[in-house]
């Protein structure tokens, strides 16, 4: 009996041990030379989700083997540098034994000569913190721009103004081979660089140079796209010339020239247009007080914010944002080059722009007040503005030796801005009776100068992982302005008729000057092969001066009588010492970072006219932590936290009244305390190679203590007086989900979007605490399909729900839906004709507050005729806004104010254009795909 049991046991063990004895083996060699390929990476992936199961490296003779494999469906993927990936589907039973005697690999350089290549290249990969798109996996039409390519990438949207949104965040920089190309205007790259020149599109959060070197995230980063060009596209020249004339005086003329010679890039552009074309979105407001490369970073909490201009007074920031009718005359030059085995590189940009703006707008505001009362303010504005702007920036970097480098960045600019505005406003009581009426004219001339520089030295010490870096920066801004304010207000009795009137006739002279010097030293010390400690010390010196003088007209009619009530002169001095310690662990799949900085700030504020001063000392904390887990090249989870202290701005601190709008007076508060903000962010990315399914999910939460809020009083005459205060309870949360699929049988790319936002804002109105809670949620789908030289289809459907409630009036809730539909069609006809059409529909639900319909259907169409074998020359006849329904419109809910704004914008016009795309790259014309 014992022998029988032993026999059965042995038989069972033998059966189990052989139940999962599937095996795969083979050998890898070069197709052309029949040379064996040693060290080739051979991976076995689960077919259902492309998750790695096992992998090995081939031996010296190119042989490989997998033993003891479980039954199932797999992908056999073989990769070797410079060769195309080989992918073979495999189905295994419990006893399968598969042998691949001679797997032939093909060089990528030969792919263009091959008729059929059996391969599957991942369209998306994760490389560290970078999402990398393989541009060749997304088909574009001949002569397509980078913007056309970006529209096809999952998780990336490009609006009709060229603004790029990636994974729910606005893209602030677009680089070419890692270098800035015309600096801070991404549209000059995306609209003028050719899609077929791009090899990879990389998406990441660009950190400061010092943070990138030390590996320690400093909490400040900008969403960035980097376009890696194909090697054979880096020699030659290309560009575009477009000449267009239209109805009603519209015109659009553009030229762009690019010369690439290996590492050297030279480019120039010019634009003369009144259609709102590219070259206007410079984002120069981000440059004030920062160097070109954003290298220096003190978490933003140690600076007193001094505006480099006087936008609050003039009401215009010097840019075109879709409001009004623009005329732009702009041009620029770009140069960058590397030499001496890339040990030295230099780059720079120069830009010039004249922008003329005129138009009008109408704003309706409903004030929700305590005791179930409401009031209304209606305002009309006519404006005529212009700005002349010069910008120059440069960068030089040298590798001093094998372990150290030096980088210098500089930028500067001069603006001359003029604004002229005429306002008419009425304030109405809840029963629509007239409370006051105001006519106001404002003319301002403003000159702005800035100069910024940044020097960064980096050193790798003898011990691996031990580094030292020193960063020194200087920022200087100066703004001089002169303006005239003429305002006449009439106040009315309840019974009707004028009760009183008030006239303001003043000259305003203002000047702000800010000098900021900072330095930061960072040292990293490895404590193991995977982890290190980071120590840093920083010093910031700030000297700021600001005066704003108001003069009434004297007996001789000159503005020479100072109005002390609306005049001020302040000097701000601040010294901050900051030190911190951090820990960083970097494993194969896990990366952990935890840091904390503490800042000691001495703050001096002197009121020169009133001979008073405020001296204060602050202790500021800057904790930060992050956790990243990389499941595979196509899947990653990341969680971030950072806390930072923020100082109030000068406009918030100055305890002086301003009467730029005497119906909306603001008062500073010298007793404001710094605020502290907690930021939490989590993101998850997943991409499946076979199904080409992509998923991005991100969640954000921000809560602020001692936030800079407002306390407003609206008196019985309709005058609003606001003072800045510290307040608690402000918070917001956001969710963003983007998904994409490739429906192969239909040749359709399907995308799904889900966005949501929750905002809680606290303020005081007529001495009563008011909390406004706002929520908006958006869901949408988009479909895209194209076939080369045949057609392009695009359809996007979005629905958004908005709701808002203020605590002072629980019965008044603002709820409404908005719907957005976008459709675009392009058909390629015989004889090189193309017909294009796109429709953008915006539908907005009426509410008790927003009673206007304001539904818009904007339809554009064009007929294009191309000439030549390479279709380099084209004649385009287009009509914009065929139905003439384009209107400027937006709605907003802010605290206890519900606002609707309509403004003039470019309407219907026809345009006849001649466009020449010229190129000679890589020793010959760019080949078609």
Automatic annotation (TrEMBL):
Keywords carried by this UniProt record: Signal
Signal peptide: 1-19
Official protein name in the record: Outer membrane beta-barrel protein
Transmembrane segments: none
A UniProt-annotated Pfam family: OMP_b-brl_3
Lineage top rank: taxon: Bacteria
InterPro entries listed in its UniProt record: OMP_b-brl_3
Organism name: Chitinophaga varians
Higher taxonomy: Bacteria, Pseudomonadati, Bacteroidota, Chitinophagia, Chitinophagales
Domain Outer membrane protein beta-barrel: 459-905
């Amino acid at each position: 009996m014992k022998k029988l049991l032993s026999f059965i046991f042995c038989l069972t063990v033998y059966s189990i041990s052989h139940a999962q004895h599937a095996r795969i083996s083979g050998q890898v060699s070069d197709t052309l030379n029949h040379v064996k390929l040693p060290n080739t990476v051979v991976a076995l992936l689960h077919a259902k989700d492309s998750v790695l199961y096992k992998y090995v490296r081939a031996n010296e003779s190119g042989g490989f083997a997998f033993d003891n494999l479980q039954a199932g469906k797999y992908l056999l993927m073989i990769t070797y540098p410079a060769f195309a990936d080989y992918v073979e589907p495999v189905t295994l039973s419990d006893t399968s034994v598969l042998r691949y005697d001679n797997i032939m690999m093909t060089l990528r350089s030969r792919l263009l000569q091959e008729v059929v290549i059996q391969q599957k290249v991942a369209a998306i990969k994760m490389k560290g913190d970078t999402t990398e798109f393989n541009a060749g996996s997304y088909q574009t039409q001949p002569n397509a721009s980078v913007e056309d390519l970006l529209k096809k990438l999952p998780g990336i949207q490009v609006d009709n103004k060229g603004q790029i949104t990636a994974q729910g965040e606005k893209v602030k920089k677009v680089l070419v081979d890692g270098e800035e190309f015309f600096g801070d205007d991404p549209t000059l790259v995306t609209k003028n660089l050719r899609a077929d020149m791009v090899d990879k599109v990389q998406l990441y959060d660009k950190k400061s140079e010092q943070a990138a070197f030390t590996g320690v995230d400093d909490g400040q980063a900008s969403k960035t796209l980097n376009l890696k060009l194909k090697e054979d596209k880096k020699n030659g020249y290309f560009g575009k010339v477009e000449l267009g004339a239209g109805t009603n005086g519209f015109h659009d003329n553009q030229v762009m020239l690019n010369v690439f010679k290996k590492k050297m890039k030279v480019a120039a552009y010019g634009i003369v247009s009144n259609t709102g074309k590219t070259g206007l979105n410079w984002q120069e407001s981000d440059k004030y007080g920062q160097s070109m490369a954003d290298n220096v970073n003190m978490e933003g909490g140690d600076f007193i914010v001094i505006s480099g201009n006087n936008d609050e007074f003039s009401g215009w920031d010097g840019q075109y944002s879709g409001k009004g009718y623009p005329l732009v005359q702009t041009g620029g030059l770009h140069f960058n080059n590397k030499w001496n085995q890339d040990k030295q590189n230099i780059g720079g940009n120069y830009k010039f722009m004249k922008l003329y703006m005129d138009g009008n707008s109408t704003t309706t505001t409903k004030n929700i007040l305590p005791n179930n009362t409401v009031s209304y303010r209606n305002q009309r504005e006519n404006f005529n503005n212009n700005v002349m702007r010069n910008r120059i920036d440069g960068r030089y970097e040298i590798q001093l030796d094998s372990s150290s480098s030096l980088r210098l960045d500089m930028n500067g600019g001069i603006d001359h801005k003029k604004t002229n505005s005429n306002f008419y406003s009425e304030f109405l009581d809840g029963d629509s009776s007239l409370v006051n009426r105001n006519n106001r004219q404002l003319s301002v001339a403003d000159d702005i100068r800035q100069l910024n520089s940044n020097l960064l030295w980096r050193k790798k010490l003898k011990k691996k992982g031990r580094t030292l870096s020193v960063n020194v920066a200087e920022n200087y801004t100066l703004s001089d302005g002169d303006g005239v304010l003429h305002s006449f207000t009439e106040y009315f009795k309840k019974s009707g008729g004028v009760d009183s009137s008030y006239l303001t006739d003043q000259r305003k002279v203002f000047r702000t000057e800010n000098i900021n010097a900072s330095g930061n030293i960072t040292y990293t010390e490895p404590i193991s092969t995977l982890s290190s400690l980071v120590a840093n010390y920083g010093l910031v010196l700030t000297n700021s001066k600001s005066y704003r003088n108001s003069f009434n007209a004297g007996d001789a009619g000159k503005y020479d009588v100072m109005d002390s009530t609306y005049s001020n002169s302040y000097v701000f001095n601040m010294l901050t010492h900051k030190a911190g310690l951090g820990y960083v662990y970097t494993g194969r799949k896990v990366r952990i970072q935890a840091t904390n900085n503490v800042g000691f700030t001495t703050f001096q504020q002197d009121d020169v006219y009133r001979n008073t001063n405020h001296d204060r000392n602050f202790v500021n904390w800057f904790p930060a932590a992050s956790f990243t887990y990389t499941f595979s090249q196509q899947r990653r989870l990341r969680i971030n936290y950072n806390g930072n202290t923020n100082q109030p701005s000068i406009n918030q601190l100055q305890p002086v009244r301003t009467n730029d709008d005497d119906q909306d007076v603001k008062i500073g508060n010298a007793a404001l305390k710094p605020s502290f903000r907690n930021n939490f962010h989590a993101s998850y990315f997943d991409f499946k190679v076979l199904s080409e399914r992509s998923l991005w999910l991100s969640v954000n939460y921000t809560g602020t203590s001692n936030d800079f809020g407002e306390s407003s009083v609206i008196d019985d005459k309709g005058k609003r007086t606001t003072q800045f205060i510290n307040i608690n309870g402000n918070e917001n949360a956001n969710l963003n989900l983007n998904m994409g699929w490739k429906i192969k049988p239909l040749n359709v790319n399907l995308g799904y979007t889900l966005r949501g936002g929750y905002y809680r804002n606290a303020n005081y109105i007529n001495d009563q605490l008011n909390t406004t809670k706002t929520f908006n949620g958006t869901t949408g789908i988009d479909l895209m399909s194209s076939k080369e030289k045949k057609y392009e289809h695009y359809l996007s459907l979005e629905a958004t729900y908005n709701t808002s409630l203020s605590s002072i009036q629980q019965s008044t809730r603002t709820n409404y839906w908005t719907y957005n539909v976008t459709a675009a069609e392009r058909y390629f006809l015989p004889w090189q004709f193309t017909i294009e059409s796109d429709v953008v529909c915006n539908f907005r639900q009426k509410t008790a507050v927003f009673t206007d319909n304001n539904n818009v259907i904007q339809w554009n169409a064009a007929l294009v005729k191309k000439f030549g074998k390479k279709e380099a020359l084209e004649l385009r006849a287009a009509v914009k806004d065929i139905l003439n329904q384009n209107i400027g419109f937006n709605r907003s809910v802010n605290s206890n104010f519900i606002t609707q704004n309509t403004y003039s914008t470019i309407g219907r016009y026809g345009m006849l254009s001649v466009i020449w795309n010229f190129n000679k790259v890589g020793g010959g014309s760019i080949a078609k795909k």
